[in-house]
Amino acid sequence: MEKSNVKTKVLADALTPRQIVEELDKYIIGQFEAKRSVAIALRNRARRQMLAEEMQDEVSPKNIIMIGSTGVGKTEIARRLARLVDAPFIKVEASKYTEIGYVGRDVESMIRDLTELSVSKVKAEQTSAKEEAALELAEERLLDCLLPLPRSLKSQRPKEPEEDFEIEDIDEGIETEEEDEEDDLLFPFDLIEAADEQNEALEKQRERHQKTREKLRQRLKNGDFEDRPVEINMKSRSMPFVEIFSPGGIEEMDINFKDMFNNILPSQTKKRRVKVSEARQILMQEEAEKLIDMDAVISDAIERVENSGIVFLDEIDKIAGRESRQGPDVSREGVQRDILPIIEGSTVATKYGAVRTHHILFIAAGAFHVSNPSDLIPELQGRFPIRVELKSLNQKDFKSILTEPKNALVKQYTALLQTEGIEATITEEAIEEIAALAFQVNESVEDIGARRLHTIMEKLFENLFFDAPDLEDDSVTIDADYVTGELEEIVKDQDLSKYIL
Description:
Layout: H1 2-13, H2 17-25, H3 32-48, H4 53-56, E1 64-67, H5 74-85, E2 89-93, H6 109-129, H7 131-146, H8 151-155, H9 167-176, H10 188-221, E3 229-235, H11 257-264, E4 269-275, H12 276-291, H13 294-308, E5 310-314, H14 327-344, E6 347-350, E7 353-356, E8 361-366, H15 378-382, E9 386-389, H16 395-403, H17 409-418, E10 423-426, H18 428-444, H19 451-467, E11 475-478, H20 480-492, H21 494-500
Parallel strand pairs: 1-8, 1-9, 2-5, 5-8, 10-11
Antiparallel strand pairs: 3-4, 6-7
């Protein structure tokens, strides 16, 4: 019954496909079909976890191929999707695996990197959860630095009289001593009285030290010492340099050298003089690491990778090509055959343990100008059942990209000018002109999608950014005439626009 409740909660907490599309609409203009496909694939993950355990293994993820020219939103959809569900996400270029030899670099490294990112993410979450306890421990260490314990309290402890002290032993000692030394002898009662006096003095000193410490604690919390320099002992992060040569590269060596050397070599500390504000953060990090259960972190991270991980394979069209006896095609097909087992589902060895790739979602993307998805090997094609074509952006899309998303370019550039105390206003006509110029350059030079807007906007604001610190006026209006004046000559000169825009 408990498992059923947990499963129901998983689906209840998951976003519906419509909600996913609405969230993606806040950052990405258009491309409804692509958003719809990734939303369904994401929801199916939550649905899979509702099934019986024997059925869960049978349901494979519906991997997606996005087809579209550069700058239409392929990468942004995948990245925003992963951020939306807080899933482990990694973007890799498929073409990089053709760099060395026919087979290429170790393709399993993408899963190792994904696991590394997941461990770092979970560790950061655990650190944040332990922040309050770590802060208290860090403050104690800071107080030790600001108000060290007096040497008398460190070296001396309350003295107790000897428990097996007997009067007869003292009497025998007295009989053997000369008579003129009798006045210098301390009797047991004198020893007890001296120890009590010393204990009382130490106790008073300890109380004074504690009161002063509590006053400092309060001032520390009030921020009175933030800029005061303090000397702290911190762990040394230096590691011995070891260079290793292996035919397959470092990826094939499943050895955690950092942990190995930490176990062999004693931990070293070094003294560093920093401000209290910086020291607090350093000590908090050290104390939080002591409070974290790394075994639980690794277990949670691997589970997230296996059930929620997303791998974005960009430029997959670069490894697609018809069979040929030429070297590059052999290399491409070799990379495809290396990637195939990972996408089909295999177990990859990492330094944190074995990771199963059976339920990792793979989203591939490519322009496919020269090749087609059908040029991939049949086995790989079958592992990407969903194919979505993203449309090229038109002038209306450019205008929407400039103004509608949460991170719209117009908002970004006006915010940058606000840091200089300048209020910039971009008129509707200016936005229309920018969109028209971006579309025109894409049509005449090369279609790089929304990335063209970045080059247009950067060139448009170049002079304004340069002169901003020296401007006397605290407000600037950018209209259509200003846009035309800044960019018209460049756009007209085709040779110049190829290099600048």
